[in-house]
From TrEMBL:
Name of this protein: Phage minor tail protein L
The organism's place on the tree of life at top rank: Bacteria
Alphabetical list of InterPro entries matching this protein: Phage_lambda_L
């Protein structure tokens, strides 16, 4: 890591500090595009770019990130503007984003990509958090509560409601003569089609998933690696 940012911080005319956030739901969703990058600081009329990531300026209120090194680890709150539905689709699709990671990175404007003194290594230590719960979502604002990535005491796995026999993946739909994969989380893109009851069909318009273990095996193979999001081995505790 570069120490340029520390030297800059000592200057009387130091640049403005930029804070950027990456909300990464790729692991919990299986969607390679489930990554949102945003910042509360506009710079001109476009996005901020740092380390190759493009951050969209949106109104953000962040609190609770400070930690003195003593006492409980921070449990920050992040409030992000939802004007225009910036966040809604991803929240609905990915189990309220519980378990998704939020990376916070801070540097000076002068070190952003495209600046004369650009330096992708000149930043304060990267902070990684996990979303514990969504506390608010309406047409104006999303609010989530975070925990430090290694502070998982008292958490429940997998951090979402568990069903023994019902998969919670969002399956593809057939619209206007073709499949749509918008906000779909199930990775199946094959050419074998099955009805809701599990019967095979040659009509793609009838392709529906019953969200059972048997439906998953028909698409991915009896002994294949199944991406099912149910928990067939789960039993009720007594």
């Amino acid at each position: 890591m570069s120490t340029n940012h520390l030297a800059t911080a000592q200057l009387l005319d130091a640049d403005a500090i930029v804070t950027m956030y990456r909300l990464d739901a790729r692991e919990i969703s299986g969607d390679p595009n489930a990554l949102l990058c945003f910042t509360p600081m506009p710079l001109g009329s476009g996005n901020l770019v740092y380390q190759g990531y493009s951050y969209q300026p949106v109104p953000i209120v962040a609190s609770g990130f400070e930690w003195s090194g003593k006492g409980p680890l921070p449990r920050p709150t992040l409030r992000v503007s939802n004007v225009g539905g910036f966040m809604v689709g991803d929240i609905v699709a990915y189990d309220d984003l519980v378990g998704a990671s939020v990376t916070r990175i801070r540097t000076f404007v002068k070190y952003l990509d495209g600046q004369p003194d650009a330096d992708q290594f000149a930043h304060w230590p990267v902070e990684v958090f996990h979303i514990e719960r969504k506390s608010k979502l309406d047409q104006n604002e999303l609010e989530v509560e975070l925990s430090v990535a290694f502070d998982q005491q008292g958490s429940y796995l997998p951090g979402r409601q568990m069903f023994a026999s019902a998969c919670t993946h969002i399956y593809r739909g057939f619209i206007n003569g073709g499949f749509t994969y918008a906000k779909v989380t199930c990775p199946y893109t094959g050419g074998a089609y099955f009805k809701l009851n599990g019967d095979a069909t040659g009509d793609p318009a009838q392709d529906k998933c019953g969200h059972r273990l048997s439906d998953c095996k028909k698409r991915f193979g009896e002994n294949g690696q199944l991406p099912m999001r149910a928990f067939p081995g789960m039993v009720l505790g007594r």
